[in-house]
Amino acid sequence: MTTLLILLGLFALLLLRVPVGFALGGLGLLLLMLGGFSPLMAPQGLLGTVDNFVLLAVPLFLLMSNVLLKGGVGKDLFAAVQAWVGHLPGGLAIATVISCGIFAAISGSSVATAATIGTVAIPEMSQRGYPRPFVLGLLAAGGTLGILIPPSIPMIVYAFVTEESVLHLFLAGIGPGLLLMALFIGFSMIYAWASPSCQVSPKADWDERLRTGLRALPALALAGVIIWGIYWGAFTPTEAAAIGFAVSLNITGPLLRTLTWATFREAVVQSMVTTVTILLIVAGAKVFGRAISLYRIPQDISFFIAQNFSEAWMFILAVALVLIIMGLFLEALSMMLIMVPVLAPSLDHLHIDPIWFGVFFVIMIECALITPPVGLNLYVIQAVGKASMQEVARGVWPFLTMLLLTVLLIYLIPDIAMYIPFKL
Questions:
Q1: What is the pLDDT of residues 7-48, one digit of tens each?
Q2: Residue 182 to residues 40, 109, 161, 177: CA-CA distances in angstroms?
């Protein structure tokens, strides 16, 4: 009964539009006081959240992605990829997906990926006769690759909450990320082949390929350095974020000369605002998590699951359904910080690997990014493409289906996620 009342209280606060961080933190503090526990646990939880080496990667990756965004790197990436694949059936759509994947491997941000590539790809694809709902849906879904392909900000937060390895989570996201890109590309080629309005771009000559490739090469090298350095242990994910930020400044500043002091200031301010938002939510979730642990709610839920879900697939299916419903009302990071502390104690009993579960969870919250009414990527693409929400929402359903198909495939073949971090 206590668990139900706490959950109802939390959802009531969220429905009253109380900011998620304040709703979690305020309710957690109230629970501590009502339970007779020391309210000093709240500021201790806040300090413990902010003073954390792992979470330091969040503002650094955000700074890097915003510097690249303001420096026009997305335009160079798209032009380079288009020069190589634009002449194929659905070539512009293929270029869009690949560009999203590459920028995701640099930025770790879904919103930055959708905004950066969308700014360039939407006008280009529209001019070539691609139906607008398809274009908008592809960009909204392509942006979700930013939180699956490493580096990934939600994976950093998941690692912080569960005390798992950020490196293993990053590596586990590579296989499903490539699978999802392949599904998006395959669907786009079939769609373009079946749609008479989609025009094929003229084949680029070798001079254009060389010119665009050289301009995009620094950004590609940055993505390679980040992934290589993390994989081989040359530096930690947090150090990779710092190196990436420094390199992005050199790419967009002295090398490409596309970053001005004004745009750099905008990048810093936007990164600061997003960082404060994320850390407030994480800190509030930390206080709430400590409170519900003292009330033994995770233990009670774990016991309930053990009594009612004898098979892992039943548990995974139930969690997927809950996340789909929650995704209609909550944004991705809030879902993770509310659900993971409660569900994590049950994984060991059901023999579910927490690294695999992290990848599964990230794919499911990708769905939340493109489901109305609060799907963040929908609003980003709506603003970039100057479209109606109905247009964007109508275009994302095939890609939402492919996200759920990816979940099914990694359940049936766990090595899609687990092979690189543990067997390669």
A1: 777 778 777 777 777 887 888 888 888 877 777 777 776 676
A2: 50, 20, 31, 9
